[in-house]
Amino acid sequence: MNGPLTALDWLGLLHPVLAILFIYPVAGAAIRLGILAREKRTGYNTALPETVPTEHWQHGRWLVSAMVVASLIAYLESFLRHGADGRSGVLLLAGIGTVVALLALWRVQQPALRASFTGLCLAGLLGLGAQPQIERLADLPWQADFWRSHYWSGLLLTALLLMSLAIRPLIPQISRLRRLHVSAMLLACVLFAVVAITGCRDLLSGMALSPLG
Ligand code: HEM
Ligand code: HEM
């Protein structure tokens, strides 16, 4: 890139910087604490403190929250760069609604409410991501570009973690849900790598800066 960065370029940098400085380190800590939580539950390591399982899901909660916020920042940058087609009010409301649903998910305990706020948060991310300003490469899973899309891998990853947050109070109680959680998070670990690779690729290719074709 030639010349100094504009304010919009700095906003565009906020998303990858947040991922590098916060999301990936917290993901590493959450994964380690998850392994320790398992060692504690199975009695493999009896010297572990009581706080390990709680520390694990609290790290997971910060992790998924940062991912939602980072996605919203990426959307904001795309809308500012490509224009909002006179719908900035609606898009802003959808963004605020997504954050409110996420904050509500931090507070409510009843399963129905947790499911509802998870659905609302995902609906906000999907609805905003469906706008033409967002670069998705392809929208159908049988198209090769779908699997090369940073947007779709990021969204799938965020959805998997949001669902873990939704069922969080039930994971220690129901062993089938615990197994489901661990399987989903193994897939999430693969997606963390995919998202890092596709995000860096898009930075390299200058896709974030080029007009949508
Ligand atoms: C970074 C991805 C994550 C990985 C790799 C991961 C992995 C694990 C593992 C290995 C366990 C232990 C299972 C067992 O005891 O057999 C566990 C338990 C658990 N995880 Fe995660 N997890 C992740 C993210 C999350 C998130 C986002 C949440 C929700 C906020 C969460 C909530 C829980 C809960 C509540 C437990 C049960 C803890 C207990 O035994 O009391 N995890 N996880
Ligand atoms: C868990 C981590 C991440 C998630 C959930 C995520 C998610 C997203 C989402 C939803 C978008 C919106 C697409 C758009 O506005 O057009 C986006 C854009 C973008 N992200 Fe990420 N991202 C993550 C990590 C990263 C990393 C590590 C990098 C690079 C170092 C990166 C670079 C970019 C770039 C350059 C864009 C704009 C161009 C594009 O759409 O690919 N992201 N990301």
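qc> Residues 7-23+60-205 form one domain.
qc> done
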